[in-house]
Amino acid sequence: MTAIPDQLAGIVGKDHVLTADADQQAYVVDWMKKYRGRALAVVRPGSTEEVASVLRFCSQQGVAVIPQGGNTGMAGGATPDMSGGQVILSLTRMNRIREIDPVGNTITADAGCVLATIQQAACEVGRFFPLSLGAEGSCTIGGNLATNAGGIAVLRYGNARELTLGLEVVLADGRIWDGLQALRKDNTGYDLRDLFIGSEGTLGVITGAVLKLYAAPSARATAMVALPNREAALELFTRLRSRAGDRLTAFEFMTRACVDLVLAHVAGAVSPFAAVPPAIVLMELSDTDAKADIASLLEEVLTESMEAGIATDAVVAQSSEQTKALWRIREGISEAQVRAGKTIKHDIALPIGRLAAFMDECEQAIEAVYPGLQFLVFGHLGDGNLHYNLQRAAHMDDGAFYALTGPLNAIVHDLVHRYRGSISAEHGIGQLRRDELPRYKSDVALQMMRDLKRLFDPAGILNPGKLLQT
Ligand code: FAD
Ligand code: 2HG
Ligand code: ZN
What we know:
Blueprint: H1 3-12, E1 17-18, H2 21-28, E2 41-43, H3 48-61, E3 65-68, E4 87-90, E5 97-101, E6 106-110, H4 115-124, E7 127-128, H5 141-146, H6 154-157, E8 164-170, E9 176-179, H7 192-196, E10 205-212, E11 214-215, E12 219-227, H8 230-244, E13 248-255, H9 256-265, E14 279-287, H10 294-307, E15 313-316, H11 320-331, H12 333-340, E16 343-344, E17 347-349, H13 355-369, E18 374-380, E19 385-391, H14 398-402, H15 405-418, H16 437-440, H17 443-456
Parallel strand pairs: 2-4, 3-4
Antiparallel strand pairs: 1-2, 5-6, 6-10, 7-11, 8-9, 8-10, 12-14, 12-15, 13-14, 13-18, 16-19, 17-19, 18-19
Flavin-adenine dinucleotide binds next to strand 3, helix 5 and strand 10.
């Protein structure tokens, strides 16, 4: 060990400082295998005090710190650079549920708790923690908050920010901010909590959080619906929402190409339709009243929609196995993309009513310049969030396709900007979008962000090169 890892071992114990290449592998490459870095050490603190000591030491030494949770992020935010001089601060040993309060409907957890563990802990006291995403078995709540994660239940419950009451954060210089309050109301000045949420490890390290719990849904109805085209998805969404209101908890959209890809690459995935339709929606209604007849409501809206020509076919899940099988198709899309080869991803937010128009215009704009690309378009339609992903044309090799990243990003994101949308709906900026951000954020907004970064992290040791250019 060199001097710095030795001194870090003095803080967290030598078993929790990883310096060998083999031990670091899982930490220096991201989930998509798109980003790869090198680390001086991977440091795994076991408490908030240890995080504080590590940060105090690193800021004194001028060593950059890359906070990391489950390493499932899709913007390269948790991967170090190639210098070999940065320290990865992995929060995964801090995985304790600190407290559950069923009266106040809150749960307090360490930042390194895996999301599924928090969901399970809530379930055990008859409550529900609604944040839900494909990576929930390995992503951490700290990472969810640092990226302000979205997922499949934002429509009803909001994103990670809206599910949070309090935070505990260690600042770059090692000071601890105890903002772990479980209050629904607190108007005592600037909202520091919301500044850290979505800051991608650039302003502080989240070590704990107080999260909102909800009554557990006891009735659920799930359906996969075949649609003639994407405009129909918006019509169905509007119809269903006006009938079901807040009981509509998920409304996920995918195109035929996405389902075909899952069927080809994900073991056990089966289409419920004999022929995969051009556009598909997976929707879920839920109610906390076990006697609520949401299944009939769903059937009724589906029948009316078929009569009106909005839907061409529908499968309503009759068991929890069928529900899982339908979700397997939706949640297998990311995995299928990784197996199928390189993808150029876009995680965009648009005004919901303009989604279909955007898809038409964007597809035409891309096809006019780069014919033959595969469009893998899916996402959380009810939130106006599309994963507008592209795969190479049959005649292209990976190199030629990847060389189109800049031009394709410009086509997609310039159009998003024209529609007054966002170039990152839920995955964050990280290193993936850092250099594009100045093209779409105003100078005033960027200057305020840089000023905040300087204030919280004057030495620039927290996740440098992510979100903002250094
Ligand atoms: P990491 O990847 O480890 O880190 C992400 C960022 O947060 C980095 O910038 C890192 O520095 C920072 N960070 C991590 N922990 C802390 C901390 N304690 N304090 C400060 N900063 C920290 N995302 C969605 O929003 N919606 C989805 O539906 C969704 N589905 C996914 C499905 C799959 C199959 C996969 C692989 C990913 C998906 N994601 C989704 C992306 C990803 O899971 C989320 O971004 C998640 O919130 C990241 O959590 P993590 O613990 O893995 O964070
Ligand atoms: C999802 O909604 C995730 O499944 C991942 O946000 C999106 O793979 C992607 O681009
Ligand atoms: Zn998503």
